[in-house]
């Protein structure tokens, strides 16, 4: 006999997904309606406006792709890259490598600008790449590199693309709603994100936005987009066709209820207040980790408050610490990837997961496991005491 699946109650403090609030889970459980139902069409329009708010854009082509962040990435590349194009791709972690893979699969040439893992993209190197490759029609970079916890200067990089008459593709999967993402102010042409990070929605949807310049390029393509499912000319007719929507695919209706609710929560808090909350909890976590001798892997000015890369102390068994956190504390943190595998842990403070309670839980759990393993010797409670001292009186209440 098969039984229903009952997942454990975890606290999610890895690189995503983040904790999904009860309100969002409740939204998922509402009755399913048809994806062409007039009520659902109204919801689509509401979600579009909400996404324009979180992306800080007036771009008419702003919508959620019915698939995870990786599909948002692919949607940007397959629509804007044609065979034979030259694309400058910045890599300072795992996700820049995925961009390169997309460019090559589109039949284009990727000119790589590489920076060390944990460092931001070097704007001067990108300028040099444009000088060396004046034919480049696109610049692709990761704003918030999930694999390292480093943040790059999106405004400067998008400006550089414009100066060189190139479009920009920006990965802000981990950035959106956690740090400022200002699509119109940056002059970014295509930006993609995911629902399972700072939006604290269920995984499986990718918000994207395309500038009018990007739409112009899509409409003037001479070569068909290689992906039928992600072809914006077709998807536009479903998301943008006024009352007469062309059927394209069956949208994940209940997941869209959840996205609407999570975006409503972002609006209720306000973007600036949300950014400040992520910052405060990050500062508390860093103070607590410092008190037990753990160092951060990224320089302070380039750290993502929502994704904290921590150096694993010498002689500590990375996997055993993470499996103990899961087994004893029901707490998930992330392992390092690529060049940082075995060298860092990635502690997420994203969306609903970014609250003092989680900071305290994570710090006391790490302190207890590392003390038991003999990796640190500190007075019990050192981490929490240090974290608590960074909060103001009103933070303590949350």
From TrEMBL:
The modification N6-(pyridoxal phosphate)lysine is found at residue 197. Pfam families: Aminotran_5. Its cofactor is pyridoxal 5'-phosphate. The keyword Transferase applies. GO terms for biological process: glycine biosynthetic process, by transamination of glyoxylate. Substrate binds at residue 346. Keywords: Aminotransferase, Pyridoxal phosphate, Pyruvate, Transferase. Signal peptide: none annotated. The keyword Transport does not apply. Residues 32-336 form the Aminotransferase class V domain. InterPro entries: Aminotrans_V_dom, PyrdxlP-dep_Trfase, PyrdxlP-dep_Trfase_major, PyrdxlP-dep_Trfase_small, SP_NH2Trfase/AEP_transaminase. One of its GO terms (molecular function) is alanine-glyoxylate transaminase activity. Belongs to the class-V pyridoxal-phosphate-dependent aminotransferase family. This is Alanine-glyoxylate transaminase/serine-glyoxylate transaminase/serine-pyruvate transaminase. It comes from Chromatocurvus halotolerans.
């Amino acid at each position: 006999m098969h039984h229903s699946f009952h997942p454990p109650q975890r606290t999610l403090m890895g690189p995503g997904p983040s904790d999904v609030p009860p309100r969002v889970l409740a939204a998922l459980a509402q009755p399913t309606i048809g994806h062409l139902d007039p009520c659902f069409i109204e919801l689509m329009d509401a979600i579009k406006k909400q996404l324009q708010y979180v992306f800080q854009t007036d771009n008419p082509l702003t919508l959620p792709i019915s698939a995870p962040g990786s599909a948002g990435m692919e949607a940007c590349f397959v629509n804007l890259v044609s065979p034979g194009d030259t694309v400058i791709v910045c890599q300072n972690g795992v996700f820049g490598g995925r961009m390169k893979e997309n460019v090559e699969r589109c039949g284009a040439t990727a000119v790589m600008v590489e920076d060390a893992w944990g460092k931001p993209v070097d704007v001067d190197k990108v300028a040099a790449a444009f000088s060396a490759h004046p034919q480049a029609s696109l610049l692709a970079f990761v704003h918030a590199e999930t694999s390292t916890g480093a943040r790059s200067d999106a405004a400067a990089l998008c400006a550089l693309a414009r100066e060189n008459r190139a479009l920009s593709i920006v990965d802000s999967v981990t950035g959106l709603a956690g740090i400022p993402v200002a699509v119109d102010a940056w002059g970014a042409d295509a930006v993609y994100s995911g629902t399972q990070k700072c939006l604290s929605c269920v995984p499986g949807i990718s918000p994207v936005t395309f500038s009018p310049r990007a739409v112009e390029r899509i409409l003037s393509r001479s070569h068909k987009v290689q992906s039928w499912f992600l072809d914006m000319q077709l998807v536009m007719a479903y998301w943008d066709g006024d009352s007469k929507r062309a059927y394209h695919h069956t949208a994940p209706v209940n997941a869209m209820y959840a996205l609407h609710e999570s975006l409503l929560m972002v609006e209720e808090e306000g973007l600036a207040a949300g950014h400040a909350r992520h910052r405060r909890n990050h500062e508390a976590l860093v103070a607590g980790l410092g008190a037990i001798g753990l160092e951060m892997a990224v320089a302070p000015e380039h750290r993502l408050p929502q994704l904290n890369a921590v150096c694993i102390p010498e002689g500590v068994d990375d996997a055993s610490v993470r499996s103990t956190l899961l087994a004893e504390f029901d707490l998930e943190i992330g392992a390092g990837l690529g060049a940082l595998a075995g060298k860092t842990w990635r502690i997420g403070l994203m969306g609903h997961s970014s609250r003092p309670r989680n900071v305290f839980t994570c710090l006391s759990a790490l302190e207890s496991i590392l003390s038991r393993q003999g990796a640190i010797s500190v007075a019990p409670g050192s981490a929490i005491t240090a974290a608590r001292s960074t909060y103001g009186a009103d933070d303590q209440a949350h």
